[in-house]
Amino acid sequence: MENKILVETSARHIHLTQEAFDYLMDAKEGEHAVLNKRKDLSQPGQFVSDVRLDLIGELNPKTNAKRKIAGVSILGPLRKYNQVEVSATDARTLGKKAPVRESGNVEGSASISILNPSNGKVLDLKEGLIVAKRHIHMTPADAESFGVENGDIVKVELDTPERGLVFGDVVVRVSEKFALAMHIDTDESNAANAGGTVYGKLVK
Questions:
Q1: What does the radius of gyration of the chain's CA atoms come to, in whole angstroms?
Q2: The whole model's pTM is what?
Q3: CA–CA gap between residue 109 and residue 52 (Å, rounded)
Q4: By CB distance 3.0 to 4.6 Å, which of 35, 69, 80, 157 could disulfide with 55?
Q5: Closest CA to 179 of 4, 1, 6
Q6: Which residues contact 96 (CB under 8 A, 6 or more apart)?
Q7: Residue 141, C-beta contacts closer than 8 angstroms, at least 6 positions apart
Q8: Could you give the CA distance from residue 21 to residue 114 in angstroms, rounded to a whole number?
Q9: What's the pLDDT score for residue 2?
């Protein structure tokens, strides 16, 4: 496929600061908890950790219990801000209205609580829950090749079995630290039947 871009499904995940991670892991005073790698991701230096936490949402009046999604991975390395990325379906499961945002834009986003089931520690975030805006990671060389710039909004066509579609409102993100790949969430992936190795084509 001409101008093909690898399309990856980004499942729900958590980004934490060192301070937040220390709290949830109940690190000893003066010491830092260590986030261990389970497997590498396609973006250089990014990885899935071996720690899984639970997301705690609003009260379900039918069960009189808090809504929950269990076993959500922390991605590393640790960051300068706390952020939880979910699909729109996940947000509804939690009883939350999470805005569609670019990663890092958490100001005024939805609240969320994070539970470490191994020790009972709960971190209450006043903001940080978002539905990630679909995006393409590119190096400057990639951007030049595709004729786009950082922040451009483009369309990407996926020719998938029986559910091919064109995704609009895809933001281009350019950095020397990136590797070429488009990221969509699980709702978007299911809508396009985008299982396995899938490539998209930039539509101009």
A1: 18
A2: 0.95
A3: 22
A4: 69
A5: 6
A6: 57, 58, 110, 111, 112, 129
A7: none
A8: 11
A9: 62
Residue whose structure tokens are 């260590």: 34
pLDDT at 3: 80
Total residues found in the chain within this entry: 204
Which helix (DSSP H) or strand (DSSP E) does residue 38 occupy? Answer: strand 37-40
User: Tens of pLDDT along the chain (204 residues)?
Assistant: 568 999 999 999 999 999 999 999 999 999 999 999 999 999 999 999 999 999 999 999 999 999 999 999 999 999 999 999 999 999 999 999 999 999 999 999 999 999 999 999 999 999 999 999 999 999 999 999 999 999 999 999 999 999 999 999 999 999 999 999 999 999 999 999 998 999 999 997
Q: How far apart are the first and last CA of the chain?
A: 15
Say which amino acid occupies 42: S
CA-closest candidate to residue 156, choices 186, 177, 176, 180: 180
Q: How far apart are CA 142 and CA 179, in angstroms?
A: 9
CB 17 within 8 A of CB 80: yes
The pairing of strands 4-9 and 181-184 is parallel
Taking the CB of residue 117, how many other CB atoms lie within 10 A of it? 12
Which two three-digit tokens encode residue 74? 């922390």
All residues at 6 or more sequence positions from 54 whose CB lies less than 8 Å from its CB, including other chains: 68, 69, 70, 71, 72, 114, 115, 116, 117
Phi, psi of 174 (to 5 degrees): -115, 130
